[in-house]
């Protein structure tokens, strides 16, 4: 297996679980939003403000395609942005590359609380009602992932081990 894509809503723990999973597997880790900010030399919030969500999604798809091409060089764990997997082109890209997707889920109230971070601007997190409505709208798309892992009340290591076990991965095996 060349890569795993973690998907889910804001606050699901994609980056935190992704880092732990990559360490346990001996694979590389990439946070798609971080890669976008480095490549574009601007924050996600600024991209949304200047280019709109559609412009951001084009950048996101382009970068994901590059990641898919890089899988032949090294096994990787990817944390996708909260809206990435909702996009049909992203789902198709991952499906065509046979990249398994893992939906990290938790109750919406927990996601709302987790996503409130002073040092992190989330352009699509305005208030509780808007947050819940967006989650309900996106959830059916997340549910299309190959695997769904409930994260509520679980330690990060337990979640990583559940993913490893479910996908039958070999720890410490790299390409």
In brief, what are we looking at here?
The chain is α/β, with parallel strands linked by helices and 175 residues long. The chain has helices spanning 14-25, 32-40, 44-70, 88-96, 108-114, 128-142, 156-167, and strands spanning 3-7, 28-31, 76-79, 101-105, 147-150. It has one domain: P-loop containing nucleotide triphosphate hydrolases (Rossmann fold, 3-Layer(aba) Sandwich), CATH 3.40.50.
Account of the 3D structure:
By secondary structure, the chain is α/β, with parallel strands linked by helices. The chain has a single domain (3-167), classed as P-loop containing nucleotide triphosphate hydrolases (Rossmann fold, 3-Layer(aba) Sandwich), CATH 3.40.50. The chain has seven helices and five strands. It is globular, with a radius of gyration of 15 Å. Helices cover 52% and strands 13% of the residues. It has a five-stranded parallel beta sheet.
Query: Can you tell me the CATH topology?
Result: Rossmann fold
CATH superfamily: P-loop containing nucleotide triphosphate hydrolases
Low-confidence stretches: none
The H/E string reads EHEHHEHEHHEH
Query: Count the helices. How many?
Result: 7
Strand order of the largest sheet: 2-3-1-4-5
- Mass-distribution shape: globular
CATH class wording: Alpha Beta
Mind describing the biggest β-sheet? 5 strands, parallel
Question: What Rg do the Cα atoms give?
Answer: 15 Å
| Oligomeric state | single chain
What is the percent of helical residues?
Answer: 40-55%
Strand content: 5-15%
Counting DSSP E segments of at least 2 residues, the number of strands comes to 5
CATH architecture: 3-Layer(aba) Sandwich
Mean pLDDT: 90
Distance between the termini: 9 Å
Name the structural class. Answer: alpha/beta
Give the total of domains.
Answer: 1
